[in-house]
Amino acid sequence: MSALNTSDVFSKMLKIQVIATLAVAVVMFLFFDVHGLVSATLGGASVVLGAYVASLVAKRNVNKTDASAILINLLKAEAVKILMIIVLLVIVFSFYKQLVPFAL
Q: Alpha-carbon distance 5 to 64, whole Å?
């Protein structure tokens, strides 16, 4: 997969995640008022930011052709994404006291 195609895939993925986050945020606003909206937006933003950082890690070695190097790079990107999501959600849970956990 060329670097241009990889960038297209990552940007499409991030756009879909942003749209899904906004859709869930609107639904949570209808069910839980403004705190549901904020909770869903913060939860979705943590996933989108984690995916964005992971995409940067995954694109680092896009020219590699060795299967093991590609796999290691993808596993690093996934680990970074999961760690980033966990850290951001811990921050959200710590500072946003009127959190609606179901909306995340």
A: 15
Q: Is 47 part of any domain?
A: yes
- In angstroms, the CA 94 to CA 33 distance is 21
Distance of alpha carbon 12 from alpha carbon 19, whole angstroms: 11
Question: How many domains does the structure of the chain reveal?
Answer: 1
Whole-angstrom CA distances from 41 to 18, 27, 93 are 9, 11, 13
Which residues of the chain register pLDDT less than 70?
Answer: 1-4, 102-104
pTM: 0.81
Given a contact cutoff of 8 angstroms between Cβ atoms, the answer to whether 46 and 8 are in contact is no
Inside any domain, residue 104:
no
- Is the CB of residue 66 less than 8 Å from the CB of residue 32? no
Q: Assess contact for 103 and 73: CB atoms under 8 A.
A: no
DSSP 102: G
- On whether residue 103 sits in a domain, the answer given is no
Whole-angstrom distance, CA of residue 6 vs CA of residue 16: 15
